[in-house]
Amino acid sequence: MKPRAPEHIAAITPYPPGKPLEELEREYGISGSIKLASNENPLGPSPKALQAIQTAMCSLNRYPDGSGFYLRKKLSAKQGIPFDGILLGNGSNEIIELVIRAFLTSGDEVVMPAPSFLLYRLVVQWMGGKPVPVPLRDLDIDLEKMAEAVTGRTKVVFLTNPNNPTGAVIGREGFESFLAAVPAETIVVLDEAYIEFSRDPDSPSGFDLVGRESPAVIVLRTFSKAYGLAGLRIGYGVMDPSIAAFLNRVRQPFNTGSLAQAAALAALDDDEFLHKTQQTVWQGLDYLYAEMERMGLKYHRSQANFFLIEMPCEARLVFEAMLHRGVIIRSMASYGMDRYIRINAGLPEENERFVKTLEKVLSEL
Ligand SMILES: Cc1ncc(COP(=O)(O)O)c(C=O)c1O
Asked: For residue 214, how many other CB atoms are within 10 A of its CB?
């Protein structure tokens, strides 16, 4: 008889893996395709990070520094955050998992916006916990409803600022009221994977909130987006040192590699690259918004590097037709938003190609 996983594992719908670009091109008989589907940095990696990787490669026979000493030191100095409260992860994904692994027991509840980043739900299910999704209101996170959803069984609340897939931010005042409303023993995870792209001055900065007594706030940041290092898998969490101590108990000793640590360290010094990335994204989004208006399409303004566009037909059909023409976008059908597509801002020529292709596709559908 074949081994059978426990019921809470068997019941999980796995995260849908994308195919490698080369495979897609082969399957669809296309070449020179562009990808605007995964909120990646269109400029490539930070050049300073690439240089640092070259140097660090010579020490690949050694295990990495398991504590990430130098990167945490630099983060602490640069961001003004406590060294002992910084935890590195194999992408900020891993910090999400560590929080849940350290604090959840079977049957505990975790409140999260819906739709939001798919991994929150998945990780809670791994631990036999109960995800409690709170629907968005007009595509914004509904902080009042989220606070109402917190019960005595809630261990953790996820908030995404800006949210994925909407790009909406939460306001400072609403967030303060939310924190005042939730019980002191709840952990609030503020996922700031896209915060470097926000142009909204009214958005709270998670780092200012980490020191507060209760509820405890854990801030997540990543090098995958603004620093262009998604393939290396490195991110971090910032929290009270007493919480970091619990997460460290369930962390693999060498969870982040030496190349990732070296690249992230150098990328933090690459202000020029960060600035260029922000300009590229902001100019790209402004161009795309104007084009969507010209085409009469409804779209949702975003503070991230991606945005949602409402289609006049099923998004799935647009996704397929665009793919055949070598433009890879995201259909939001798997998020329960059947008529929405999500794209990230690309290079100027990629944005133009997206617009031209979308116009053609919509005229033919
Ligand atoms: C909201 C959000 N949080 C976290 C992540 C994970 O990023 P990382 O690459 O650091 O694991 C993503 C990735 O797409 C995301 O959209």
From this structure: 13
Ligand 1: does its nearest atom lie under 6 Å from the Cβ of 321? no
Quick: pLDDT tens for 261-293: 999 999 999 999 999 999 999 999 999 999 999
Q: ∠ CA 356-362-365 to the nearest 5 degrees? A: 140
User: Whose structure tokens read 């509904």?
Assistant: 142
Q: Could you tell me the end-to-end alpha-carbon distance of the chain, in angstroms, rounded to an integer?
A: 49
pLDDT digits (tens, 9 = 90+) for 138-154: 999 999 999 999 999 99
> Does the C-beta of 302 come closer than 6 Å to ligand 1?
no
The CATH number of 47-267, from 2.170.120.30, 3.40.640.10, 3.90.79.10, 3.40.50.2000, is 3.40.640.10
- Give the mutation target among 35, 38, 170, 225 for probing the ligand 1 site: most ligand atoms within 8 A of CB: 225
Question: Rounded to the nearest whole angstrom, what is the distance from the C-alpha of residue 317 to the centroid of ligand 1?
Answer: 26
pLDDT at residue 205 in the model: 84
pLDDT tens digit sequence for 158-194? 999 999 999 999 999 999 999 999 999 999 999 999 9
Distance 223 CA to ligand 1 centre (A): 9
Residue 2: which H helix or E strand, with range? none
Q: Is any ligand 1 atom within 6 A of the Cβ of residue 93?
A: yes
Q: How far is the CA of 91 from the centre of ligand 1 (A)?
A: 7
What does the domain layout of the chain look like in residue ranges?
Answer: 19-44+272-364, 47-267
Helix-then-strand count for the chain, H and E: 13, 13
Two tokens, residue 346: 């690309």
Q: What's the CATH architecture for 19-44+272-364? A: Alpha-Beta Complex (3.90)
Q: Whose CA is nearest to atom 3 of ligand 1?
A: 193
163 lines ligand 1 (CB under 6 A): no
Q: Which of 116, 219, 222 to mutate to test the pocket of ligand 1 (most atoms within 8 A of CB)?
A: 222
pLDDT digits (tens, 9 = 90+) for 57-112: 999 999 999 999 999 999 999 999 999 999 999 999 999 999 999 999 999 999 99
Cis peptide before 47 (omega within 30 of 0): no
